[in-house]
């Protein structure tokens, strides 16, 4: 990502409109986007660390409730895994990138010039701070309306990570003395920046599952899941 300067940073008012968030107190949103490195240079403003703390707690509840209601048959241990996967910093940074939150961050010059606008820890923290600000400004219902569609978009990827169908298929084929599964890309489509991979998985030399996705890893997971279904394992 190219370096930002002060005039490149998206104002909080523009971000609010772009995300469809009607903040009655834009100062809260501005604070949510302000990293401590910015405060070191402009000490009259407040950083986002307290809002980050609050947003972390609100997200734990929101995500926990969403997982509980979205998967009524899922056992407690799996619910915990899914909640943890959704609130880890790496995943929150992915959410922030989807929202293009990086271009609205207010960073100090050094942090900005070193790529802070696209750094996982800053993006994840900013997402938490945004949630904290939205909670203070509009309440839990507004946070639900904002966060739940984001969680829904990530559902399949997180489920595949938790259940790890590749490991499950590997264990099953070995228990059946069929050797290890083999994965092959059979086709690709789409432009270079949005390639879709189609993968087949073979068990004992026979194609048992197909899967597609934006990365080879995702397509392999989908193919393994398909194979598990076709083999009657799940």
Kindly describe this structure:
The chain has two domains: 6-161, Ribonuclease iii, N-terminal Endonuclease Domain, Chain A; 165-230, Double Stranded RNA Binding Domain (2-Layer Sandwich). The chain has 234 residues and is mainly alpha-helical. It has a three-stranded antiparallel beta sheet with strand order 1-2-3. The mean pLDDT is 92. The chain is elongated, with a radius of gyration of 21 Å. It has eleven helices and three strands. Helix 4 (49-70) crosses helix 8 and helix 6 (89-98) packs across helix 8 (120-138).
Instruction: Identify the strand order in the major beta sheet.
Output: 1-2-3
Mean pLDDT: 92
Low-confidence stretches: none
How many structural domains can be distinguished in the coordinates? 2
Order of helices and strands: HHHHHHHHHHEEEH
As for the CATH topology of the largest domain, it is Ribonuclease iii, N-terminal Endonuclease Domain, Chain A
| Helical proportion, percent range | 55-70%
The CATH superfamily title of the largest domain: Ribonuclease III domain
Give the CATH level 1 class of the largest domain.
Mainly Alpha
> How many angstroms does the end-to-end distance come to?
43 Å
Assess the beta-strand content as a share of residues. 5-15%
The CATH architecture term of the largest domain is Orthogonal Bundle
Shape descriptor reads elongated
What radius of gyration results from the CA coordinates?
21 Å
Largest pleated sheet: 3 strands, antiparallel
Q: Tell me the number of strands.
A: 3
Question: Treating each run of at least 4 consecutive H or I residues as one helix, how many helices?
Answer: 11
Structural class: mainly alpha
């Amino acid at each position: 990502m190219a370096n930002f300067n002060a005039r490149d940073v998206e104002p909080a008012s523009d971000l609010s409109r772009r995300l469809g968030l009607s903040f009655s107190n834009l100062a809260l949103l501005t604070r949510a986007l302000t990293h401590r490195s910015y405060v070191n240079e402009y000490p009259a403003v407040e950083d986002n660390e307290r809002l980050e703390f609050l947003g972390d707690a609100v997200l734990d509840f929101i995500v926990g409730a969403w997982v509980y209601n979205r998967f009524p048959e899922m056992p407690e241990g799996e619910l915990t895994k899914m909640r943890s996967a959704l609130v880890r910093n790496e995943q929150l940074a992915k959410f922030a990138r989807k929202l293009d939150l990086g271009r609205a961050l207010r960073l100090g010059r050094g942090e900005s010039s070193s790529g802070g606008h696209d750094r996982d820890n800053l993006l994840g923290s900013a997402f938490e701070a945004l949630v904290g600000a939205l909670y203070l400004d509009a309440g839990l219902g507004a946070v639900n309306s904002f966060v739940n569609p984001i969680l829904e978009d990530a559902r399949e990827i997180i489920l595949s990570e938790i259940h790890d169908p590749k490991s499950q298929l590997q264990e099953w084929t070995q228990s059946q003395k069929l050797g290890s599964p083999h994965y092959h890309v059979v086709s690709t489509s789409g432009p270079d920046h949005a390639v879709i991979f189609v993968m087949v998985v073979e068990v004992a030399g026979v194609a048992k599952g197909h899967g597609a996705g934006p990365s080879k890893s995702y397509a392999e997971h989908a193919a393994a899941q398909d194979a598990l279904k076709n083999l009657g394992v799940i």
